[in-house]
Amino acid sequence: MVFEGLSSRLQEITRKIRGKARITESDLKEMLREVKLALLEADVNYKIVKEFIANIQEKALGQDVMKSLTPGQQVIKIVKDEMVTLLGETESGINFTPNPPTIIMLVGLQGSGKTTTAGKLANLIRKQGKKPLLVACDVYRPAAIKQLQVVGSQLNIPVYANETTKDVVKIARQGIDTAISKLNDVVILDTAGRLHIDEELMEELKNVKSAVRPHEILLVVDSMTGQDAVNVSEKFNEALGIDGIVLTKLDGDTRGGAALSVKKVTGRPIKFAATGEKLSDIEVFSPERMTSRILGMGDVLSIIEKAEEAITEEDAKELEKQLKKKELDLDDYLAQIRQIKKMGSFSSLLSMIPGMNKFKDLKVDDKEFEKIEAIICSMTKKEKRNTKLLNASRRQRIAKGSGTTVQDINKFIKSFEMTQSMMKKMQSEKGGMMKKMMKNIDKMDMKDLKNFKM
Questions:
Q1: Cα angle vertex 326, ends 320, 331, to 5°?
Q2: Other CB atoms within 10 Å distance of the CB of residue 389
């Protein structure tokens, strides 16, 4: 899970200080020492850590925090604000030109995930009403062109490639001409990477930049490489003058040092974050929301946006009907699981729920839900409607049909019946549960709630 190590450390530190009615200067120094160690363990650049801690200390001591009614919460707010500043303060997406096509040039080292990112970015841009064209400018890596073509076909996005020449500048120009003739308003150039930064690589990229004058040069960085990612960002920025950064493999980076360092070192914003293997797993990077996730404050807005994107109005109405039923059956249960799966992995969704990160032992394996689907699909209609029919022989048949064990069936049915019981209780409370939910929403900042679609 993204920032798992750093997040758990910082949440433990803030938990200790949050409820304190009184904080001494020595309490603050002890907390800052722990924050400093947590950031260094997360592979954040030492100079950045030093400046970060100094800023917090200056503000905490200079704002009469010690004398306030809630000094612990005041300190946590300062930590949050400083982290938002460190990550870039505001969202920063693509700056589309009023005279299309907008040319986006992706650069980076080999293995950073440029080709997959090109597809993900094109998919995200298309959702904004644009018509992207992918251009295969990597003429060196074996099967690089084929990989981009496969990604393009999966997304139904056109790809321009010319396998008869190694002249990357010529290919880029031809790709842009094709975009103009086909009325594509965005061109994404997937350039070649190298195993390390060298003069030959940089010279080729400079030639492409000079020839096509891209509106955006985005550096694709593997966040799992830690301080190497920071060094690479610095060198690419010096040579090319990048406009922004795309962090890849953020879902596998438990430390998060690269994300917390690259913005400060390069002075360029993190524009996008790739958070999974699916071609839909990319999002505009939000410093505010990412900070909330790191500090265990959740990211409710992102969950709502994912739900709005994945679940249609008709699906939502059908789900509402199911929840109003007196009895939730396994067909309803399966439909809900499939709707939630459209929003992304269960583990990534859990990380966005406020307070869930404190349950360290709670591990979600998405493969378990595939097992549940297989179990339900191996049942008859009558069995789905009434689990009381599931005697020993029926459970053995379902286990064989779903490739699971009788123990798996027993475990699932027990948890499902608990869910059924909970749903009945919610119904019997006659709106009590909804009132509690609305109370929690009332406590949230109205500025954040203004775009909610109820």
A1: 65
A2: 12
Q: Which fold has domain 4-87?
A: Four Helix Bundle (Hemerythrin (Met), subunit A) (1.20.120)
Q: Report the topology of domain 302-447.
A: 434 Repressor (Amino-terminal Domain) (1.10.260)
Query: What is the H or E stretch that residue 203 is in?
Result: helix 199-212
Residue in this structure with the two tokens 């064990």, named with its chain if needed: 405
Domain ranges of the chain: 4-87, 102-295, 302-447
Grade residue 385 by pLDDT with cuts at 50, 70 and 90. confident
pTM, rounded to two decimals: 0.67
Strands 270-274 and 282-284: antiparallel
Let me know if the fold of 4-87 is the same as that of 102-295. Answer: no
For the segment 84-115, what is each residue's pLDDT rounded down to a tens digit?
888 888 888 888 999 889 999 999 888 888 99
Section 187-216 average pLDDT:
88
What is the average per-residue pLDDT within 368-381? 86
User: Residue 390's closest CA among 433, 330, 444?
Assistant: 330
CA 319 to chain centre: 26
Here the contacts of 308-317 (C-beta below 8 Å, separation 24 or greater) are 308/453, 309/127, 309/343, 310/339, 310/342, 310/343, 311/339, 311/342, 311/343, 315/339
